[in-house]
Specification:
- 48% of the residues are buried.
- With 421 residues, this protein is mostly helical.
- It has one domain: Amino acid/polyamine transporter I, CATH 1.20.1740.
- The protein has 18 helices and no strands.
- 76% of the residues lie in helices and 0% in strands.
- The protein binds phenylalanine (PHE).
- Phenylalanine is lined by residues 28-29, 31-34, 107, 210-211, 213-214, 216, 304, 308, 362.
- Phenylalanine (PHE) is lined by residues 28-29, 31-34, 107, 210-211, 213-214, 216, 304, 308, 362.
């Protein structure tokens, strides 16, 4: 009996466990974005936040499925570039490439800014070493750049260790914070009569979509599992639903401890991670909680930073056709890390702004483009392998959601939307 190479290949591919892909997806979804959530959502407060998180999570899953749907019609390894060029034409191809690079760079900046602030705060508080976050940002970036330049195997190992640390820290933080939660805070009982929350709803969208972002991974998942939509769907569902659970819990713990009014001074100071952690520490007034929170913040930002900038590193190497030898990798590292580090040394506290702008660009290639791709690929191929639930109406819902998110960010940049501050 002869078995074709393809059949053998797919038999082998089928054996790959869902766990690996689910881990990668979870690691990408749950990043520093979650540190922006309590601050960005303080205007709408707890109950509304849960509602928006559920809706955003749903839309982001559907957008991921639509991307997968289109991707399955192409050769394994086909990227956003191939899909948009073939299905949507020049305009969307260029728009996707520009917004894709923008999101990676601005997130790299956000992570450097967040990490720098947390590291500075840790050094000052525990080692009485006063170094400004401009300098820790640059030093931290050099260390990360060196690790990435040195080898991607090293990055893989270090990321695993950091992820492990992050999850241990997560549960330690949550377990300890739980005891301090005050339901009165969550219900905002001290709010004067007639307090309105809804006007602040739209401006939370860019932060929510970034926090559920993983969509750059879809082509890699296809590469990893082959054309096996079932497994890829499971990875996406596990990663995003786990993130949803975590974020609800995270808001419960943070909004249950810091009252809505107490978020105002945090926002006034730029809303970077260190300010947020300091405020939490001051309210909890416990030395051990301080240590746990600091440990958590350091691990969370460091693992995001490594993972996210590795994506940017590979993207730059491919785009500029830099070689994978020492010299080539050095060039790639320079192009990857110098712009965000430079921006951080000039403007160290833009964490929250950066996540907002990332949301603006992310809406293009992770929501609107997947909707358009699904529509175009259904017309062209009929998409026999996999179809996202909801038919054409859902495609429009997803696209409209993306447009609203972009408008929300643009309007709030011009101070047209009310901001809670
Ligand atoms: N979801 C990630 C950010 C991210 C967005 C888009 C793609 C990859 C990562 C976070 O919360 O930090």
């Amino acid at each position: 009996m002869t078995v074709s190479v393809e059949a053998q290949g797919s038999a082998q591919v089928k054996k790959k466990s869902v766990i690996g892909g689910a881990m990668i997806t979870t690691a990408t979804v749950v990043g520093a974005g979650m540190f922006s959530l309590p601050v960005a959502m303080s205007g709408v407060w707890f109950s509304w936040s849960i509602g928006i998180l559920v809706v955003t999570c749903f839309i982001m899953i559907m957008a991921g499925f639509m991307l997968l749907e289109a991707n399955l019609n192409y050769h394994i390894g086909a990227s956003f570039d191939t899909l948009t060029k073939d299905l949507l034409g020049r305009f969307w191809n260029i728009a996707t490439n520009i917004t894709f690079a923008f999101v990676l760079y601005i997130l790299a900046y956000a992570y450097i800014s967040g990490s720098a602030a947390v590291i500075s705060q840790t050094l000052t508080q525990y080692f009485t070493i006063g170094i400004s976050s401009r300098i820790t940002g640059v030093i931290f970036t050099i260390i990360v750049a060196f690790i990435v330049w040195w080898s991607s195997t090293a990055v893989g190992r270090i990321t695993t260790i950091l992820l492990l640390g992050k999850f241990i820290a997560f549960f330690m933080t949550f377990a300890s914070l739980l005891g301090y939660v005050q339901v009165d805070n969550l219900m905002d009982v001290v709010a004067p009569e007639g307090t309105s929350y809804l006007p602040f709803l739209l401006m939370t969208l860019p932060f929510c979509i970034v926090s559920f972002g993983f969509h750059g991974n879809v082509p890699s998942l296809v590469k990893h599992y082959g054309k096996d939509p079932k497994r890829i769907v499971s990875c996406i569902l596990i990663g995003t639903l786990f993130a949803l659970f975590l974020y609800v819990f995270w808001l419960y713990c943070t909004m249950g401890n810091i009252s809505r009014a107490d978020f105002k001074p945090i926002i006034a100071q730029g809303g970077n991670i260190d300010v947020f952690i300091t405020a939490m520490g001051a309210i909890l007034n416990s030395a051990s909680m301080d240590v746990i929170l600091t440990f958590f913040a350091n691990f969370a930002v460091a693992s995001s930073m490594l993972g996210a900038t590795l994506g940017l590193f590979d993207y730059i190497a491919d785009l500029c056709k830099f070689k994978d030898d020492n010299g080539g990798r050095a060039k790639t590292a320079l192009v990857t890390y110098i712009p965000p580090a430079l921006l951080c040394s000039i403007y160290p506290n833009g964490f929250l702004y950066a996540i907002g702008y990332a949301g603006l660009a992310f809406a293009v290639w992770a929501i609107i483009v997947p909707g358009l791709l699904a529509k175009a690929s259904r017309e062209k191929f009929g998409n026999p392998m996999f179809r996202t639930w909801g038919g054409t109406p859902l495609v429009y819902v997803v696209i409209v959601f993306g447009v609203i998110t972009m408008l929300a960010h643009i309007l709030s940049t011009f101070n047209i939307l009310p901001t809670y501050s």
